[in-house]
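anyone seen this seq b4? input:
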Amino acid sequence: MIFILTALGVICAVATQILFKWYTSPWHILVFAGILLAWLIIWQLIYWVGLFLWSLTVDKKKESDKPSKFYKWIFVESVRMALFFLNVHVHTEGTEKLPKPGERFLVVGNHLSNYDPMSVMYVLRKHMLIFVSKPENFNIPLTGAIMRKTGFMAIDRDNVKNALVTINKAADYIKNDETSVFIFPEGTRNRTDAPLLEFKNGAFKIATKAECPVVIVAISGTEFVKKRIPRRSDVYVKIVDVVPAQKVTELKTAGLSEHAYKLIYDNITHGKENVKES
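predicted toks r here
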């Protein structure tokens, strides 16, 4: 999307300069640069304002019938632009371990901040992916609407029966080859000094029910993004392991949870702001 908006800006800038014959000015290069900048800003405003106005028409309480590739694309492109303007640089490692695009799997990772889903979605942008998220996130202006239309699922962790419905639905999505699913086994954002919160074994029932691979992700650096804006932030997303479906069946939920916890614990930076690039 950022390339589309840039191309529109260039076309409009060229058309404006030709229309008003500003190319005859001795300062035509500077004039063109100013016009181009203006059009780039205008198209960004058109995109974000238009997206916001659209979001006001979305019922954020109504779950989507099925995941949407179109809205997932909108989500990814919006994330790409947001990371660019927030000066967030995402570094990845281990992407060669990922299943091929089109294959379905469960993704689990640690949860440090609201920038975790953005970073993971950017890294896994070639894969159809939705998140299991807490209900409050769907009330976030603009973001909540895109999440809902993409097919993200809310989970009520205070109600075991309702949570199980979400777990089963997520498993069905994977089993029916509709989408891969991401869930944070910690259940909430880690605001403590501990490197990791205790994992909820129930999160791994999605994989055991769907009999699918589990992608284990270690995220570092997202907890510092907010306080560093507009300075550069470096985020590290490491694909630690991909547990094949057969091993998922053997380990079961408790074994999977223990395996993922150990791998993530060993591969995060434990709150160190100045981490080295992989």
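The chain has two domains: 2-54, 58-267. Residues 221 and 274 are 9 Å apart (CA to CA). kinda curious what u guys think
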